[in-house]
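Quick board copy: two proteins, each given as sequence then tokens.
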Amino acid sequence: MVIPALVEAQDMASALSAINTPYEEECPVLSPDGKLLAFTITGHPNNVGGIKDHGDIWFSTWTGTGWTKPVHGGHLINNKHHNTVAGFSPDGNQMYLMGHYAPPGKAVTSQGISVSVRNGDTWSAPVNIKVPYFKNYSDYNTGFLSSDGTVLVFSAQGYQYDNPDLNHVDIYISQKIGGQWTEPKSLGPKINTPNYEVTPSLSADIKRLYYSSNAIDKDVSFDVYYSDRLDDTWENWSAPVNLGPEVNSAGREYFYRPSQVGSFFSSTQNSDGYADLRFVASSDTVEVPVMIDPTEEVKVVSTDTTAKIDEGKTRIWGKVYNTKTNQTIPGAVIHFTASTNYPTTASTSGDYEVKLAGIEEYAVKVEAPGYIGDFERLDLRTQALKDLEMNFKLIPIEVGASITLKRVLFERSRPVLLTSSYDELDMVVDFLKENPKVEILLEGHTDNQGKHDLNMKLSRERTNVVKAYIVAKGIEERRIATKGYGGTRPIADNDSEDGRALNRRVEFKITKDPM
């Protein structure tokens, strides 16, 4: 059946504000009944691998008027790898995932796709499905399963043994024929270029390909394009067409996913530097076909009961470590602040424990005499655990000690601080007040996108903005020096958005002995 649009496009776009977080939202997939939106969040501290996790699957439910706050999908369908949804079966009871999974404590040794079965409000441990000769050298799994379950398109990094410089990301296809998946093959040179083609999807009739590329139009980081399949070879395509300003912007657009109610996609336009989910009305609202030859026999292995929200208290516990010695720091103070302040002091062994009563977002501040403090955020509105371990590592105060200000963010391509930066900057102010002999150097860094001279200028301007904020809070100007490095000192690979996000940072370094 054809599912009617849930709301007008403008209302749907507004409703997504409940989903978008300060982190990166990508890979949106709508269930066939239009009631469940699965997507991936990268860099969220509540991911299985924490803020360095490549991405976990989260869910939001349609209430009839809007989307609920995101809920983590649990540890059965998420691991420390890049976890994404490729599609649902027509009845919505099977969810297909990119990548293979291993039992707890075991390493993943194969690649392909997998399937998880709905069991009430939870999803079973995924069952691996073999796709012969499936190989992706990238850390990111992005693919799309056609609504009838017979065609998988995905982007992957191949390896050119004779020329490693050509290890770009291309789009491939595998088809399910006679109950078996075929060996993946490239979509050919009409689609794939020497640069990057990523995040493919298909129209409901499997005739139109949507994908993002940074190679078709000059000076475009990533825009969404479409191309029509001209025959059954999957290698003969019409010329790519840019989807235009309704979708594409000066930012990066990818993960364009048509659905029965419109199209969802990710964009960095008007975001906090990380991609947010967007929505646009589309005409691709045809009937969802019946799954052809569903030959996989899937059994529910176990269910993830952590996916249900507990309105009671959440126990937070852990240790505070010295980064140089890896020993615990006795007496460290950990503040959890939201509508209620929960100060707690680590014991003589360096352990701490606190019980938080509210389903809120908390600012977490960690301090200890003789150490540079740490700052994190904990969003219990989206975390469904009763028990959570949070460990911290503090850097001793000494000349040369350097720390990245993880939560100091700016408007895209501008030296304008986001208000979410103030909490961490206030912690820097407190540190300088408590250590009046310390002098610091603020270092600004960008990724390598765009012109070198503009990146150098932007990095200098951003450090000056941070300095101005600190000085306005009562710190002497002479104690703060600034320097911009542009994109010359990356700490991660600029070939991925996650890597570029890590490279866009402000650091401070102690330059004068505090003693």
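And the next:
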Amino acid sequence: MSDLPQPKKIAILGGGVGALTTAFEITNQPGWQSRYDITVYQMGWRLGGKGASGRNRTISNRIEEHGLHLWMGFYENAFDVIRQAYAYCKDNNLTPGTPFPTYKEAFAPMNFTAVAEEYPPGKYQLWPIFWPASSEMPGDPDSADAPRSFDPSTPWGYVTALVSWIRSEVDRVAKDHNILHGILADLCDDVLAVAASADHSAANVSAANTTVMHRLERFVFRFPPDPRSHSQDEIGTLLRAIDAILSEMRQAIEYLFAGDTELRHLFIIVETGLAIAKGMIADDVINQGFSVIEQYDFIEWLGRHGCTHASSPLTISMYDACFGYAHGDPKQRNMAAGSTLYGALRLIFTYRGALMWWMEAGMGDTIFTPIYKALAHRGVKFEFFHKVTRVNLSADGAAVASIDIDVQSVAKPALAGGYEPLFNVNGLLCWPNEPFYDQLVNGDALQDSRYSNRNLESWWNDLPVYAQRTLTQGADFDLVVMGISLGALPYICPDFAAADKSGRWARMIEGVQVVRTQAFQLWMNRTPAEMGWPYADQQAPVLCGFVEPYDTYAQMDHLIPRESWAAGECKQIAYFCNAAPDDPSAPDFSHHDYPAQQLDTATSAALDFLDTHAQTIWPGGVSGADLVGYSASQPNILASQFVRINIDPTEQYVLSVKNSTQYRISSGGAPFSNLYLAGDWTRVDVNLGCVEAAIQSGIMASYAITGAPDFLFGAFRQKLQLAPPQKG
């Protein structure tokens, strides 16, 4: 018998991006097989968690998503992981014939966004915003050393970047508005006279530019980079200057707002930006960091610092993008000021190449296929159709002792390689929107019409369990990675709160909230131009800030070639999504018809939205005749389209409400000795519900287990050293 130590067995529960990143980073390490034996346990037939997508094989292999998924241009860790996954697949010929040989082909830049502005009250108009582009790409180490105009490693660096950006926006508009240039040249001479002779070379501003915004910029650039050495007298002057600029500018040009949309938008930008700068200084974010303002809601915090347009299309769009509505109630906007502000500043000032990036196919196809193929090739094992029902602690409550699992199905014995989850669509390996029943021993039973809810991903399904299995510590696992999302933890970890005498687990479960979401997708037989979209000559957009119940819209026509439509059959694809209201009277999981009832509610809301508000996007509105597959015999015009409501515990979106971030537990900080956490609900650098947060969490889980990697990427691939993990 060998005296060599046996590899530690790691059970990874769930197949979302945080869980898979943990496996990816562990298996990145040379010789990992001698140290670890990794198995991923996944409910149902596909990976992806809240980011899973599926191809509808009966309708032109169309892509059906949980909702709208975009990658932001500051997602350095996310892009780095996916870059490596694509490179591994290419080097090992795991995806032959793919249209995406590297990650650069799998993404496309998006630098045109729009927000919907309710102006005048009761009427929505579109506010287009165009973002500067470059040849860079996040995750690319070859373009990470470009010179930067500010230092993103400190909050003060963002203050300087913010003031410079505001000045540039003012210059852009003022050149076409002589009256504005004159007003700004005369404002606040007494307040900023001290800055008139300041050295302005760092700001790269011509001495001929003497408007109040140029003087403010030069004044800000006088301050040393380290805010601890700032003079309190000059800080006081700066705060008074910002107040004076806002007050006098408001009085001078407010009368112009109604007649000039561009000036109205400019003032919203200036007021919001300067209120942020003022708040960061006044609340000492510049010294103590963004967490010091987490007790405030972001819009509430802006109002505290004099922003009269705190609830503007710009800020409301942030809430829409993050489903930032407690209990899914549009009247309960709630996003922590520190986390929201940090995310917004990272997005606006540290993106590379493009503000956002489209995935060139479904998220499952683009992201989870290469990660899955790489992990399987490396030797990670996958147990599909394994639904975790309970995680049990040891008698002393110190560690995970066993894991109860409902086995939903197993592959037929004739399949030597086990269940094969992928199939080929136009050269791309994709996940289907339902299992390959012909591969499963109980495939016929899973399709039996006697069962009212045959969805294996639904907690309300009434399908018979094929088998039950209990994993035990020492035999089946040594370490556990909890990659199942926060909403499910009260159900599968019911004893954790009582066992954790520190109270941290209970505070996390109670303090970090989740919300339902809903979405619908349209496949249309007319182009955006034919339907009157006013920016049809521009790049396809994302629109936020629109009216409820579907406040976010994306034009997704770039996916048409990735599906299997006949030539000219589909000319436009549109996605809509938003938060969905909680249901305090939701029944237990024995009420199998509940998901269908909720889907009917979401469909009714979508129909009402199209009837009432689609004209803002398509002036002629939408009728059944515009939709591919429509038949007059169908019960409603959306019967041929795709509507989804995410009500299951594992699918609910993790919020960043005020006074909650401190309750998040880090990946290595779970109060049980062999448990690690992975997901966007843990404590990371970007504490928002997003891919970047989940991938940061997976990296940190790998570090807590193995000691590597010992850093995260920050802005522009700056390395953020991770603190040594402290278990418990």
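Board note added afterward: The chain has 20 helices and 25 strands.
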